[in-house]
Every structure is written in structure tokens, then in C-alpha cells.
Amino acid sequence: MPSALLQINIVPKRLLKKSEAAGYCNRSVKRFEIEFPYRPLSMPNGDRLYDREDCDRWIESLKTGTIDTDDIVGRLGQ
What is the pLDDT of residues 13-60, one digit of tens each? Predict the structure, then answer.
């Protein structure tokens, strides 16, 4: 019986729309808007996108009970 090998490489998106970021964090969009401490990036075309790495940082801070306020304050100045 012949067999075939299928190799699929999936590159995850780093920048997410609000609904995608909320889903990634397993939050409703309304809860995400209230709880997520990082600002979205403003793209040249006006889109506002959320960095998946910010989502990961936030989730880790919830696990450890700490949040990097210096990072948030730095992003607010951008």
C-alpha cells in the first residue's frame, strides 16, 4: 500500500485583530477590552492590531500575579 508524507508548515500570525486577540486569550471581546492592559499597535493604514507576544506576557503575568508595569508605561509613551 503506497503512503505519502504531507508536511504542513503553519506560521502563526503575530499581529491580531481585536476579536482574534480576544479569542487567543479565551476572553470575549468585551472582557478583553476591559482586562487587557496593553495598547494595540497603530498601523500606517489605520488598523489597530494586538501583538500576540503582549497577549502571552499578559497571560504569564496572570499566572505569576505580577505585571511588568514598566513595559506598559513604555508602550503608553509610543
Answer: 999 999 999 999 999 999 999 999 999 999 999 999 999 999 999 999
Q: Whole-prediction pTM value?
A: 0.73
Of 23, 29, 58, nearest in space to 71 by CA: 58
Three-state SS sequence of the chain: CCCCCCCCCCCCCCEECHHHHHHHCCCCHHHHHHHCCCCCEECCCCCEEEEHHHHHHHHHHHHHCCCCHHHHHHHHCC
Kindly list the strands in the beta sheet with 41-42, ordered across the sheet, starting from the edge strand earlier in the chain: 15-16, 48-51, 41-42
Domains and CATH numbers, the chain: 15-76 (1.10.1660)
Q: How far apart are CA 5 and CA 71, in angstroms?
A: 44
